[in-house]
Prior knowledge:
Elements: E1 3-4, E2 7-11, H1 22-26, E3 28-32, H2 35-44, E4 45-46, E5 49-53, H3 54-59, H4 62-71, E6 77-83, E7 86-89, H5 93-102, E8 114-124, E9 134-142, E10 145-150, E11 159-163, E12 173-179, E13 190-196, H6 199-206
Parallel strand pairs: 1-4, 2-3, 2-5, 5-6
Antiparallel strand pairs: 6-7, 8-9, 8-11, 9-10, 10-13, 11-12, 12-13
Amino acid sequence: MLQQNNQIIVFTDNPAAYDQTELTEHIDVEFCSCPDSICCAMLEKNYSGMILDMRKMMQTPCCKRDRILSLSAKTPIMRTLEEADRPICLDDHEDFICRCLKQCCIRTGSSCAISVSIPVEISLENDPAMRTTVTGTIHDLFEHGCTFHTDADLSGHTFLHLKISSLTNKLPIYAGVCREQTDLDCSCGYKVKFLDIKEDQSRELSDNIPPSESADPVRQPLIK
Length: 224
């Protein structure tokens, strides 16, 4: 599973602008200026929140900006505009801090991977229509993603589309690669995080995951 932490990640070229602000007084902050690096960081961890410098975002190429927004879709976000080496909050910063501090508590369900055997088709990020696919098998399913094995070499591809034909809704699921398959015989496979999954798909997949003892008995979708 991805590890939840109490950090927020800030997309900025000027980390010093956030020194001694109310934001850094209440929560740990990690800074990142590279679009590719922030995507990798968000695939490795479940951050409690994200701050986006809007000038930095507008200077980022559209495709990379879309990736960042996809990765942060379920994460509290605050927009800032950096002026005179100080961040101006474009959103309510107190509400943002509150939501970040509560973020760890809103995820429900089991934290353990569940062994399954589900056929899956995979295409690359630039093929959302899935005209060219390779086949694989999902063998571990967890709250926010899955692990699959394939004989195809997908190394170097950070984002993929997955089609699970056994689901009622067969629309492709957009996913980010958290861990690559080291070789064709590796049983661990590719570990991916679901970034864009429909609620009915999430709910249907969640039927494979038993609720934790502390969770509400009403079944929750994988991703809210």
